[in-house]
Design brief:
Elements (H helix, E strand, L loop, with lengths): L24 E5 L5 E7 L2 E4 H6 L17 H4 L3 H15 L11
Antiparallel strand pairs: 1-2, 2-3
């Protein structure tokens, strides 16, 4: 599969582990110890909990990433997962403008 180009420069490294084609979901901790849902992109972690709270990205009509894990998101099923990933990839695509990611 060809490398999809991202507005995040480090995600365009052909040898990098987290290009736009590979956005793994996970949980990370902030400096104050709070756990958040996020995805790796290039050499960074994108805080998906914050994007959802700001209304910039949503998997459902109700918050599903407000907790400290992915259980509510996973309960939505494959159609919701696919739609969410498509939104996320569009948001991170080259030309989308990384400034949109600042809530």
């Amino acid at each position: 599969m060809p490398l999809s180009r991202s507005c995040i420069p480090s995600a365009n490294d052909p040898d990098g582990p987290f290009p736009l084609n590979n956005l793994p979901y996970g949980v990370f901790s902030t400096e104050d110890g709070r756990r958040r849902c996020g995805t790796a992109i290039g050499d960074s972690i994108l805080d998906l909990t914050t994007l959802e709270a700001a209304g910039l990205l949503a998997a459902a009509e109700r918050p599903v990433l407000a907790g400290d894990g992915w259980n509510d998101f996973m309960a939505l099923g494959p159609d919701a997962w696919d739609g969410y990933r498509a939104q996320l990839q569009a948001m991170l695509a080259e030309g989308a403008g990384a400034d949109r990611l600042q809530p």
